[in-house]
Amino acid sequence: MGRFWSLLFLLVPVIGVGIFVVCAAEIGIEDHWLPENVNEHGRVIDDLFMFILYLTGIIFIATGIALFWFLWKYDAAKNVEPVKYVHGSHTLEVVWSIVPAATLLFIAIYQMNAWADAKMRRPTLPGSDELLPPLVEVTARQFEWRLRYAGVDQVMGTDDDVFGVNDLHIPVDEDIVIAIKSKDVLHSFFLPNLRIKQDIVPGMKQHVWFKSNKKGVYDIVCAELCGWGHYKMKGRLTISSRDDFNIWLQEQYENQEVSEFEPEGSE
Amino acid sequence: MAMTPPRYPANVAASEKNAERIRDSIEANSGGPGGGGEVLADPNGWATITGTFKVNGQVPRGVVNVEKDLEVCAPGGQKPLSEEAVVGSNGELSNVLIYMTTKTDPENELWEHPSYAANRAGELEFDQKACVFMTHVFAMRSTQKLKILNSDPVGHNAKISPDRGANQFNETIPPNQFAMYDPGGESPGAFTVECTIHPWMRAYMITRDNPYFAVTDKDGKFEIANVPAGVELEFRVWHEMPGNLKQVNLNGADTTWKKGYFKENLEAGSTKDMQVVLSNSLFGG
Amino acid sequence: MRAIATTSAILGMVLCVGCGAPIAEFQQNHVYILKQKNELDGAFTPQQRKDLANVMEALFGTPDNPHIPQTGVDTSSLFEQNKLLMAAGPYGSYEDGRPRGLYREHCVHCHGVTGDGKGPTAQFLNPYPRDYRLGKFKFKSTPSATPPTHEDLRLILYNGIPDTAMPSFKLIPGDELEALIQYVRYLSIRGTVERELIFVMAEYGEEERLFDETIGAEQAEEVTDVVNAVLEDWIAAEGASLEIPPAPKGEKADMIAKGKALFYGDIAGCVKCHGDSALGDGQKTDYDDWAKDYFDPKKPDDRYQYIALGALEPQNIIPRNLRAGVYRGGRRPIDLYRRIANGITGTPMPKAPASLSPDDIWHLVHYVRSLPRETTSNPYQHVPANNRERH
Q: CB C350 to CB B26 under 8 A?
């Protein structure tokens, strides 16, 4: 019975790796790996992810096999020698403390640039040190994403601001800054296809930024449990050319400014 | 804030079989000509109904809580008295509404005395002063128009809220201006008129197709002249506080008016006098 | 042996929990029945209440199987059966792939199966979700108590109502949105018909019945008259939107100044409720029509009997804070024009006096739209001394 359990434990690394391979290589299954990435900086994040995945994957497989081997070799049914008491190995303990610590330190330093690009180095206006003003202010509230575009004058809080809900449009191939706020509780602004995720803390002024490189329609999701409607707090992100974006924004502005109404004659 | 979910009482379930049967019957009968209303006999003349309403015992009268525009609504610090139960020194009860509920044929001239034909399409006035509606219970015909005045130096609005029959209305009335209200139909009972700017202001109104209605004055007296005689008429009696008046002492005898209705069949040329005494327990006494 | 016992225990538990749900039922309007009992001495015997339930199911069907009343009025402009079926029923889909149970998926937890605004979530909200059964809606283009048009309902669903719990359904497909609009209409018409039938029954003695075994044409007529009156109201609403003349041309600042004069003047009377500060603090003690349906502010203790039947604790309705820049019924100029020119049905907000011309109302609209930009509306936000600028 004993060796059966060691084989069972071996199944864990085998099936675990198997699932990752099947999903990543899309063997007989689709859309089960990372969502499509359309953010220029997203490649860096994905590369980091894969690097850590491989690193931890190798260690996972190694420890899995080691566990199996010890379970198999020292199975009680097959070992009649008495147990040898060992006082431990100081060298072994030093090695397996320092190596992981060094690895972690390496990862921490290796990712600093990616972190800084995503969280600290907000894009500036071309040719100057001035920070790029936000294109749109996204206010998360239970359970929707309220939007306010700065409008043509690029200043938030003026008469040409365009208001919307859940339907975010962004021009492609441009540095975009989004200001994020919360009206009530913690939310998290998550754009899966842009690899952008930022917890929104009520009262805190935060920005996210990115440069997308492909047009299309993608999701906005809330990634911080915010109440009973968290599961359906979805929005739609539409990335289009700058011209199409301008046309769309103008349309929204005109809809917002409708100043006359004639009722339809009853048919 | 109560945190228990709203509890529904046990629901009344429909029987699917019965519902099917009813549906077939309703839809088979729809679109066809109506069965026609009950055919009433013709009246043979005119009579008069008069009376007095009194309350037996003391009735408290409170003061209205005025919170806004105090210079106009509580001049000299005097807050207006509540009008929920206005009882005179000898028990005279004002603001009792008596109205005829018999369904009449509007084309049949024998049901409407010529003296009422003139006021069919009239224009009546309804005023407010010192943040009080000047007529607390106002009855009018559904064919008349109402000019709602504002004789105060502050703005008021008239929110008229019939549940059914007459038009709903809510319009601001600037100082010394007026608004026009067209009822457009008959209401089966009295409904509220309020000012939402001064929410303590409330009056009641009813709009009727027929002209046979009255409201008791400050002496508790009313008169409805020239009601059709020789046919059974049904009237309903209502007061703001108890609602429809059911337990009354009519001309010395304790009587029950079921759901507030009383029936009369009057001889042509006669006058029916109703001396009604009510218990003060109906008015918070 | 133990393995068999454990396995069967687990299997048994799974089977007992099961996956069925109770069949949804329309709740009879208990609160309105009690109100008619109190005011009109309605008898409402158990037999009469069963009759009412039977007639309502005959006319409108059940939450799983809606029925469009065939009472002689052409309802094709109001409902289509296939759309109602998409909204009705339990969540899922039909064999042809059409969705089912859209109302239960999106709306029921606030608005309730009967459309009475008393779903499980309702008690936690301020303002409460709409009770469709009165047939009154706040944000529409039609005046007074006229029902909303199709476009009015569509805009509410499409944009949601900012500042409340009503979300935007902009992202659901167009035909699903259409199904929800028609189902809301269906519930509203059903609720209004039920109220009217209850009123008719309040005058009955103990023995009279709304519908019994010996059905005559006259009895059917009484019921169909009620239904048709409501249906015709809704059909007529489509052409009843207020016509809004174009805004006058002129200097923006000029028009805003004129609007300000009107806002603070005696004729429009805005400050009486919205306050001299325009923060909505001029009036805090009033209630909306949905609360006043069973609650009389002059007799507050009478409300407990209705709360025991499922009515919600009445909440005050507060005038809008005009400096916040949040407009529940839509922020377009025509939306604001409608709020002022029509008033807001079901609330204390009256319509503008007849002495205000359309240009005057436009000036008020411009002033109201300029309020959130004033410096008074944007107080200086103190920045804590130790706050680090996080890009």
A: no
Residue A246 maps to a domain: yes
Listed residues A61, A94, A119: the one ending a domain:
A119
Better-predicted residue by pLDDT, C15 or C375: C375
- Residue that wins the pLDDT comparison between B31 and C298: C298
Q: Are residues A184 and A78 in the same domain?
A: no
Residue A212: domain span = 136-260
Q: Which of C167, C170, C247 sits opposite A259 (nearest CB)?
A: C247
ipTM of the complex: 0.92
Architecture of domain C252-284+319-377: Orthogonal Bundle (1.10)
A197 in C contact zone (CB under 8 Å): no
Question: Could you tell me how many CB contacts below 8 A there are between chain B and chain C?
Answer: 188
Best interface-test mutation with C: which of B259, B261, B283 has the largest number of C CBs within 10 A?
B259
Domain layout of chain C by residue ranges: 30-237, 252-284+319-377
- Can you tell me the distance from the alpha carbon of B280 to that of B136, in angstroms, rounded to the nearest whole number? 20
List, for residues B51-97, the tens digit of each pLDDT value. 999 999 889 999 998 988 999 999 888 899 999 999 999 999 999 99
The reply to whether A127 falls in a domain is no
Q: What is the Cα–Cα distance from C179 to C66, expressed in whole angstroms? A: 12
Q: What is the DSSP letter of B119?
A: G
Binary contact (A120, C331; C-beta < 8 A): no
Predicted TM-score of the model (pTM) = 0.92
Q: Is C146 on the interface with A (CB under 8 A)?
A: no
Say what the pLDDT of residue C6 is.
76
Contacts of C118 in chain B (CB under 8 A): 6, 8
Identify the sign of the CA torsion B71, B76, B77, B80.
negative
Q: Is A264:C150 a contact under the CB 8 Å cutoff?
A: no
Q: Are A149 and A135 in contact (CB under 8 A)?
A: yes
- List, as ranges, residues 255-284 from B with C-beta within 8 Å of C: 258-260
Residue B46, strand partner residues: B228
Count the domains in chain A: 2
Q: Is there a domain that residue A126 lies in?
A: no
